[in-house]
Design goal:
By secondary structure, this protein is an alpha/beta fold. It folds into 2 domains: 240 residues, Metallo-beta-lactamase, Chain A (4-Layer Sandwich), CATH 3.60.15; 62 residues, no CATH class. Strands 1, 2, 3, 4, 5, 6, 7, 8 and 18 form a 9-stranded mixed beta sheet that branches. Strands 9-10-13-14-15-16-17 form a 7-stranded mixed beta sheet, covered by helices on one side.
Length: 402
Amino acid sequence: MAFRVNKCFHAVGNGTLFSGQIQNIQNSEVFNWLYDCGSTSLKTIGNILTNLPNWFQSHNTIDMLVISHFDNDHVNGLEILLKNFYVKKLVLPFTEWPQSIREISILGKKGITPSIALFQLNPAKWLQLNGFENRINEIVLVKGGENPNSDILESDNNLVDNPDLPIDSTTSVFFEFDTPVQKSTIKLLKINHFQSFKDSSGSFEFMFYNAEKSFSELGLIYEVGGKRFAKKSRQELSIVKADIEKTIISLGLDQHITNLPKDWRKKLKHCYEKHFGKTGEAKNNISLCMYAAPLDLNLQKSRYATLLTGDINLSSNVIDDMEAHLGINRWDSLGIVQVPHHGSQHSWTVGNTARFMPATFVQCATPTKLHPHSKVVTDLASYGARVRVANRQLPVAYSFLY
């Protein structure tokens, strides 16, 4: 054994901040990664991010930061994080720009702040406004969907060297404003979630799972003659995008995020619905999940793998798809499983516990009436599951050698 792994669900309560580090014992090299960086308490997430463990503070570089989705309690610590660390690779779920507009305009103040809204619409512009232009090296967008090439499953793909799908102006997740992400200093890649990759030592594997459906699958976009159109307005998507971008600029969301009109969400929602219709038809299951474990298949019985789930809705169908996506060897190695959405009943189906047993479950929540929900707690207890809770007082930390 030549590597030590330290992992921690930090004490942020309702939110998620998971840190991991792989230490090469022989040469002292490290690989640092984070999954999400937010909490419902800004004070809590701020204190923890500025006082990460010594084994993180001794290296001011995050090799990989994964954001599962853009709800405040999963990403509102990003600004504090970038003040203290340089991020080599920022991994985000591939989210079509109409879906981003829906999230920003519909979810209200509890969903996405103006600052995070701008970050989601154009991270290069957000970095520029906050003075962080040189704090992120590259952004990797992870797209779900069917496996485009079965050979990928057996390859040694690396996120940097093997981008899967090209970025183009029509399907881009971002708005341009006056700072196009594609023309910024940030390297921009898009991959399919079947592409796993390794840490710098080549001994540890990360694999993502994205259950998000496209707007075409949701019935809000249709195609004619190779061109795509919005369902309600029947205008070509390039025209729709230009109209929405004009609205964003008129509101000042691309520049003056601290001095927006009080009804800015309402105006953005109106523009969205003018083209795509009422929002109930656009519900989606957005949360980039991540599997992390040593690569050596001989270690499967040790159950060293961690599954991070964000706020994904773990319906039976999603679990079936996720299990098939990861494959039997990875699935049987799961030792730690994050209960999604802080134990919300809307992200958990009764009987889920049995699908992951004998793994240990981690609840990222400071107990409230609904988080974790009694139905989720009961389901976990009915199977005798081992459950640990990362609340605002106590983290859940563990380490191992391989």
